[in-house]
Amino acid sequence: MDMALQAHRPVRCRAALFRNERGNLKIRPFVGFFPNGRIPLPCHLSLWQNGYTASGVSFRVDATADFSRRKQRKTSTARPKESSTRGFTPKPPAKSITNKSDQKSNDEGDEGPGTVTRDHPAQSLDTFELKFESDEKISAEEAEESVAEITQDSKFDKTSNGTAGRIKEAVEVPQKKGTSSVKADDIYLAITEKENLSTDVEEITNCDAKLKAERETILKEEMEMNLRRAEIERLAEENFARGENMFIYPHAVKPDEDVEIFLNRSLSTLRDESDILVMGSFNDWRWKSFTLRLNKTHLNGDWWSCLIHVPKESYKIDFVFFNGQDMYDNNNNNDYSVPIEGGMDTFAFEDFLLEEKRLELDKLAREETERERQAEEQRRKEAEEAASEADRAQARVEMKKQRGILQELMRKSPKSVDGVWYIEPSDFKGQDLVRLYYNRSSGPLVHCNELWIHGGYNNWRDGLSISGRLVKSERKDGDWWYANFIVPDGALLLDWVFADGPPQHAGLYDNNGRLDFHAIVPMSVPEEVYWVEEELKIYKKLQEERRKREEAIHAKAKKTAHMKAKTKERTLKSFLLLQKHIVYTDPLEVNAGDTVKIFYNPSNTVLNGKPEVWFRCSFNRWTHRMGPLPPQRMLPAENGSLVKTIVKVPLDAYMMDFVFSESEDGGIFDNKDGMDYHIPVLGGIVKEPPMHIVHVAVEMAPIAKVGGLGDVVTSLSRAVQDLNHNVDIILPKYDCLNLSNVKDLQFNRSFPWGGVEIKVWHGKVEGLSVYFLEPQNGFFWRGCIYGCNNDGERFGFFSHSALEFLLQSGFHPDIIHCHDWSSAPVTWLYKDHYTHYGLSKARIVFTIHNLEFGAQLIGKAMAYADKATTVSQTYSKEVSRNPVIAPHLHKFHGILNGIDPDIWDPYNNKFIPVPYTPENVVEGKRAAKEALQQRLNLKKADLPLVGIITRLTHQKGIHLIKHAIWRSLERNGQVVLLGSAPDPRIQNDFVNLANQLHSSHADRARLVLSYDEPLSHLIYAGADFILVPSIFEPCGLTQLTAMRYGSIPVVRKTGGLYDTVFDVDHDKVRAQAQGLEPNGFNFDGADSAGVDYALNRAISAWYDGREWFNSLCKRVMEQDWSWNKPALDYLELYHAARK
């Protein structure tokens, strides 16, 4: 018997089962290419009915990995591992696959299967062949057993994942007539059960379709590859013929695709180099650099190439070739560049970069926030540990103190006092019920009919914890009474007194001659145990008190920050709406990346009546990378008086800048009187670069304050610094400085000027950087700020030394801001001298706080300054005709002062009894009024209270103040005045008035003729009205502070008073133009009738409409009179000076 088996790579053949017209069963093979890379063998199996005989049968066995686990119909006996199936012997592998079937024709003449050979170039098949020839008759059972044994034979191929391989073979089973033949059904069932062959014709058809599609794809790719090769060969020949050493393929480069770069080395400066590399980037060398090695190509000539992937964000490829070291081919210093079709343009790429930067900044911000959170958590943890240790130390100290006191009491305390008191039983401990006996006749309660014990323990540790009424005892040896009580747990010592009544209702006591009664607890807990527990209790109590205190502070700080943020938000919105009668945007808040509509009303400007209006715009203070946008003709809006246009705001914008003109070429411009129109852009990825502002001043609150100048220097500087700009202040180092408010004061340097050594000191005041100049000539060692006979010389020297300090220190500020006559010389000294020495970058801004002093110096400063301001718009109009101002109106602006909301804050104020906000203004002011009345010994009554806080000078309207005091008293009100006069005659006059009022109205009038900061806070909070009847007032801060505390201002219409106080009866329209509501009472004249008109209406409103009056107090508190808006105005002025 000779048998051969062919084994090869695992394949799978799904046979289809059919029954022919004679009833015969056939398994038809699928012969073709399988897309999974396996090569199936042909198989053909004809199964005849039992009535027919055949010389043999040929079939294929396909075993799957789970075949051995399936339920077997019959089980074959296992063979030894080294044995093989009967009649099978292995044969060396072959390169072809042969399936033989030698079958004689049957009586019907059916065609027998032949030999099929399949070779596939993509497959490498290892096969071996086994032959089977026999004349023996094989029963069905034997054939089935053979199939099973073949399937389970150990010589199977294995796939890489461990799945059993499939064996394909031709098995010939000879069969003679007259012998028992193999039934076709039995063979079929054995095959299907053992091998789980699929008969799904539809799957085979689908597989065939996929095969066809893959063949077509392969053919198409081969054709494209041939075309590509031919095209590249053609390009290489053409470029070489033209002497060009570089080309790309494909010629049209598109984003997010591959491109091949070719270099002819022989035409390059790298002709002698063995290594050729390309170094490049995209979009003008701004995006995704690369360095790749070129390889020698198959092309004719010395062509080298490499493949580059083009990013989707690209519009150009930039590159050079080099040898990996220092030899380059850079296209004659022009670099190689290839444009990319269909990608981003330069503007789109700029936006893409900006968006990438925004994402990066967002990531960095999140990381920074997380770092800050972790750092804050670490600080909090360390602070908690330190505080806990401090609490432990304090508890230990407190325990030792209590222990010393208690031990001294215990040392002196008896168990009983004969004839006075004793306790039964004499030995007791905590939680025991004891009886305390008291001899009434032994003390001051001898005649009392009722006796009570008021007691505690351990030196009254928990206060009054024992109380009870004494009962008459039956003892006959005295007037004995007793009370039963339980000894407190943990008591070492009992403390008590006797009284004639229960707690809170007793009038007479026996307290042992003010020493109280004490008795030792004989069986108390050990002292050491008690004091360890006591220290722990004290520690826990301290911790709880600290926790509550910190929570309250945190909650208050959080609420304060929230209120400040909301106020700032409202102010910004008001700032944007303030020019709505001329220009506004939709949306109102402009965000980077938005498309914004601009609406303009030319009828309110110099372009009124012009047939056309053109819009000219840029960004970032006219410095944006795109430059000014092309002029746009504005179109009529739905509202007939308005015109509009649309602007796309770039992502890197922080400010939108624009002006309007009558034509495309220009003509007449509306540029907001040279300031231009500016609208902040929110959410941009680029922040406004900070300016460096240096203030040169002779006053600064709170360390060197005389008047409002000192407040402005400090508060304006803080507000500008809060807007992320850098601020320094240069101030004389007076010997009368309040150094307690200067932090980290230390010597900085010294320099000579004018033959004098000038020492420089540096410190922090209210969070601001301050340089103190101390010339060693004694100019500022006078014990005062003003009042010397050579003040002009002193401050002139200071102005010159301030500029010298800036020069020698290497400072290059953007703005030098000087104030009033005292630092006016800075303007001309800078322009005449220091611009030539290296300080040319700075621009000079000069502010007039009060024109009444130093007019000549002010006039000269106006001529030299780049921009000039005064402290309110109305005051700027009032002084505009002054000869020192009139020639310079083109650069003269009025900017209202503000107040510092942190200094003047009724919610965080240690000088008033109850913190308050607009929500509880009524309760807060009521408590403050009561505290004020109590402090000044005024009648504690609900009366209208008029407050006056001022310097007593003629400018402040002292004759109107006197009249207002008497008028308020006539209206049954109360009056409080705080202030002093620099003129002794005025001071004496008010001293006499104070004495007179003390005699006639002591319970309703009080004049405090001195400076008292804490009292000023209490007056602002406790007064219902604050009177400011100034004859002239450049700005005035008193009325602004009054409104911060919910007090209603009563003022004369002048300067800043007119700009900030809007009469509730007459100024509604004027207030609305400023985005406000009426907030007080004002009058015109400078006589008593004017004061009466305003004061009478105010007091009547208090009496007649208390609910309305309270709502007015709430309203004025909600108005923002801080530096939020003035700081924005000053920044606009600074930028205009630099433009």
TrEMBL record:
Residues 532-559 form a coiled coil. It is found in: Plastid, Amyloplast; Plastid, Chloroplast. GO terms for molecular function: alpha-1,4-glucan glucosyltransferase (ADP-glucose donor) activity; alpha-1,4-glucan glucosyltransferase (UDP-glucose donor) activity; starch binding. Residues 256-341, 431-522, 593-682 form the Carbohydrate binding module family domain. GO terms for biological process: amylopectin biosynthetic process; starch biosynthetic process. Pfam families: CBM53 (PF16760), Glyco_transf_5 (PF08323), Glycos_transf_1 (PF00534). Pathway: Glycan biosynthesis; starch biosynthesis. Residues 67-161, 365-392 are annotated as: Disordered. Belongs to the glycosyltransferase 1 family. Bacterial/plant glycogen synthase subfamily. This is starch synthase. It comes from Trapa incisa. The lineage of its organism: Eukaryota, Viridiplantae, Streptophyta, Embryophyta, Tracheophyta.
